[in-house]
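User: I've been trying to design a sequence by hand for this structure and keep getting stuck. Would you show me what you'd pick, starting by listing the structure so we're on the same page?

Assistant: Good idea, let's start from the same input. This is the structure you sent:
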C-alpha cells in the first residue's frame, strides 16, 4: 500500500446538525461526536442504532426523533459496540430496551466509577462538554445475542449480526429490504481506525464479508454514508500496518522501536487535522501495540509448528486471499429476538 495523503473533509463533531433520511423512514445524523446514530420508523415504534456520547447531542437526537415520529415509542436501542461513543448516551433514550452483543454486556458491566472519571477527564480541554458529563449513568443491555438476531416490527426487518474485528463485541445492523447496513466502527471513512482492542485478521475478514452482504450503502461509525468498496481502504490500511509491524519484528526490533519508526508512515495514509494530530498519533501507537502482540504470537506459533514438524501451514502465514478463503464468506443467519414487550 503506497503512502498517500487524502483530501480531508470536516465532520461536525461538536454541532447538532439535522437528521438525514437515507431511505423511507430511516434516518441518520453525521454531526454527532463518537458515532453516526440512526433510527428506523415502523408502524409499531422506533428502533435506534447507537446513541450520541455528548449529553447535549443525545438530548437533541431524542428531540429530532420525537419530532419525526411523534407518539411512537422507542422499542429498541441497538449498540453496535460497547465503546463510549456508541453506548454512553443510552440513558437518554429510556425506557427503551437496550440490545447488544453479549461481549458488550460483559465489557459494560465493568464500567466502574473509575471509567466515568476517565470519560470526564478526557474532556478537560473542553470544559463546556465536561460540565455535561457529571451524571453519567451506565445503562447495560437488557437483551444480548451471540451470533445474530432479527427484529421485525411494523412490516420492517432489521438483522443484528456479530462481526468482530474492531472489538470482540462489534456488530452491525443490516436492513435487507433497504440494502443498507450500519457497520459501526468496522468502517472509518478517510480516518485512522482505532485498533487498540482489535483482532486485525478478524477485522479484515469482517470487511470482506461486508462486501458479500448485498448492501448498496454502508453507514460507518465515522464518516459519511458510502458504498461497500470503501471497505477496501480500511483493509489496505490494516494489512499495511500488519506487514510493516512484521518487518520490524523480524528485524529484531522491539515494540517501542516499531512505534517510533511506524507512526510517521501510518500518519500519511489518512488525513490528520492539525488539532487532532497528537491524539491520532497516540491512537496509531495503541494500534501498533496490538498488532505487534498479534504478530509476535503468530511468529512464535509458526516457529513452534516448524520445530514440531507440522505439515500444514499456519493460517496466519497464508496470503490475505488464502486467509479469506479459509474463513466463512457469509454472515451468520439471524434468529428472532425473544423479549417481552
Amino acid at each position: 500500500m503506497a503512502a498517500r495523503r487524502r483530501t480531508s473533509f470536516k465532520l461536525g463533531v461538536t454541532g447538532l446538525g439535522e437528521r438525514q433520511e437515507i431511505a423511507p423512514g430511516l434516518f441518520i445524523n453525521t454531526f454527532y461526536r463518537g458515532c453516526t446514530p440512526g433510527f428506523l420508523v415502523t408502524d409499531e415504534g422506533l428502533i435506534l442504532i447507537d446513541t450520541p456520547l455528548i449529553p447535549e447531542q443525545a438530548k437533541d437526537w431524542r428531540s429530532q426523533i420525537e419530532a419525526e415520529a411523534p407518539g411512537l415509542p422507542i422499542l429498541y436501542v441497538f449498540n453496535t459496540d460497547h465503546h463510549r461513543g456508541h453506548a454512553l448516551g443510552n440513558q437518554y433514550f429510556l425506557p427503551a430496551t437496550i440490545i447488544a452483543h453479549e461481549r458488550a454486556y460483559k465489557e459494560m458491566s465493568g464500567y466502574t466509577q473509575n471509567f466515568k472519571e476517565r470519560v470526564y477527564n478526557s474532556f478537560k480541554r473542553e470544559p463546556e462538554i465536561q460540565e455535561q458529563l457529571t451524571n453519567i449513568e451506565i445503562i447495560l443491555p437488557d437483551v444480548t445475542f451471540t451470533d445474530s438476531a432479527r427484529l421485525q416490527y411494523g412490516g420492517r426487518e432489521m438483522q443484528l449480526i456479530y462481526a468482530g474485528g474492531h472489538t470482540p463485541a462489534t456488530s452491525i445492523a443490516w436492513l435487507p429490504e433497504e440494502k443498507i447496513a450500519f457497520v459501526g466502527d468496522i468502517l472509518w471513512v478517510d480516518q485512522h481506525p482505532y485498533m487498540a482492542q482489535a483482532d486485525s485478521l478478524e477485522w479484515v475478514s469482517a470487511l470482506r464479508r461486508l462486501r458479500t452482504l448485498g448492501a448498496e450503502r454502508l453507514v460507518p461509525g465515522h464518516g459519511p454514508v458510502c458504498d461497500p468498496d470503501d471497505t477496501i481502504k480500511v483493509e489496505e490500511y490494516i494489512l499495511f500496518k500488519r506487514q510493516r509491524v512484521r518487518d520490524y519484528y523480524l528485524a529484531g526490533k522491539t515494540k517501542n522501536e516499531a512505534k517510533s519508526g511506524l507512526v510517521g508512515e501510518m500518519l500519511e495514509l489518512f488525513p490528520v487535522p492539525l488539532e487532532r494530530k497528537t491524539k491520532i498519533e497516540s491512537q496509531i501507537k495503541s494500534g501498533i501495540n496490538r498488532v505487534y502482540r498479534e504478530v509476535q504470537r503468530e511468529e512464535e506459533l509458526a516457529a513452534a509448528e516448524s520445530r514440531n514438524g507440522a505439515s500444514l501451514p499456519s493460517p496466519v502465514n497464508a496470503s490475505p486471499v488464502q486467509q479469506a478463503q479459509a474463513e466463512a464468506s457469509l454472515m451468520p443467519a439471524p434468529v428472532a429476538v425473544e423479549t417481552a414487550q
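That's my pick for every position. To get oriented when you compare it with your attempt: Confidence is low (pLDDT under 50) at residues 1-13, 311-341. The chain has one domain: 1-341.
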